[in-house]
Specification:
Layout: H1 6-9, H2 11-14, E1 39-40, E2 47-56, E3 62-72, E4 76-82, E5 88-95, E6 98-103, E7 108-112, E8 116-117, E9 128-129, H3 130-135, E10 146-153, E11 158-164, E12 169-175, E13 178-185, E14 191-202, E15 205-215, E16 218-230, E17 234-235, E18 248-249
Parallel strand pairs: 7-18
Antiparallel strand pairs: 1-17, 2-3, 2-16, 3-4, 4-5, 5-6, 6-7, 8-9, 10-11, 11-12, 12-13, 13-14, 14-15, 15-16
Length: about 250
């Protein structure tokens, strides 16, 4: 079975963050806004976010993609990634029953279960906690459940150590009322760190406009939030995903 190209596989780290190939689209094009079916009433806690996803390639250059996230927190998520000319790059749909990702230009797909999304057997790629990443767009930058262990004052604020609900230790830094960084130990010993900056208001909530993902001190992914809306109706095709027969599974 084929392995997915490195430039595409970094999408898994965002998971960020969710999508589907729309059967009504021609060729490899996919719409960032679902159009299949009639609009359905969205739960009041639903969210739609538009953002720019920047992937750092192996040669150090940046690759910018447009992204749209549809979220009903804790229940289901979808994301569409598009490149130049609106060409679909990757899509993902996560539900409580499992997750499915498609890569239209490569004609590949992968699936799994649970809240950790990514390639389990590839130690070079961090698994993504889907609920935690989606929560960033709600302004929830720390794990939903954690125990604070200790803290120390720093020149710019306060550094705090804690343990999350799964028993995994982490640390975060506060500057005033803002969480500006969150760090975990990676599976291979390399630190995985998120940096939050440029806080501003999005529909009544103060969010970091910029989120940077680092691993071993090197940036590999970045998010720039453009727009966030709540309670908007989603089309009936938002929570549907079809995998064409010509697509092959990604080797895991």
């Amino acid at each position: 079975m084929p392995r997915i190209p490195n430039t595409v596989i970094f999408f898994l780290m965002a998971a960020l963050v969710m999508g589907a190939v729309l059967t009504g689209c021609a060729g490899n094009r996919t719409s960032a806004t679902p159009t299949e079916g009639d609009e359905i009433e969205a739960p009041l806690d639903s969210l739609r976010a538009k953002f720019q996803l920047t992937i750092v390639n192996s040669d150090g250059s940046d690759q910018d993609l447009d992204a749209v996230l549809f979220s009903v927190p804790g229940k289901r998520y979808r994301m569409e990634l598009t490149g130049p000319m609106g060409i679909g790059v990757a899509s993902m749909l996560w539900t409580e029953d499992g997750w499915l990702m498609t890569f239209p230009t490569e004609k590949l797909y992968m699936k799994g279960v649970g809240y950790m999304v990514g390639l389990l057997n590839d130690n070079s790629i961090p698994m993504v906690h889907i609920h935690q990443v989606a929560a960033f767009f709600e302004g929830d930058l720390l794990p939903a459940k954690f125990e604070r262990l200790d803290s120390v004052m720093t020149e710019g604020g306060m550094a705090i150590n804690g343990v999350d609900g799964s028993g995994r230790k982490f640390s975060y830094e506060m500057q005033g009322s803002h969480v500006v960084s969150l760090s975990y130990g990676g599976r291979d010993g390399k630190e995985e760190k998120l940096k939050f900056s440029n806080f501003r208001e999005f529909e009544g909530k103060e969010l970091p406009e910029s989120i940077v993902f680092e691993r071993g001190g090197k940036r590999f992914l970045a998010i720039k939030i453009k727009k966030v809306t709540h309670g908007k109706p989603f089309s009936g095709g938002t929570w549907k995903l079809n995998v064409p027969r010509s697509f092959k599974p990604v080797e895991q």
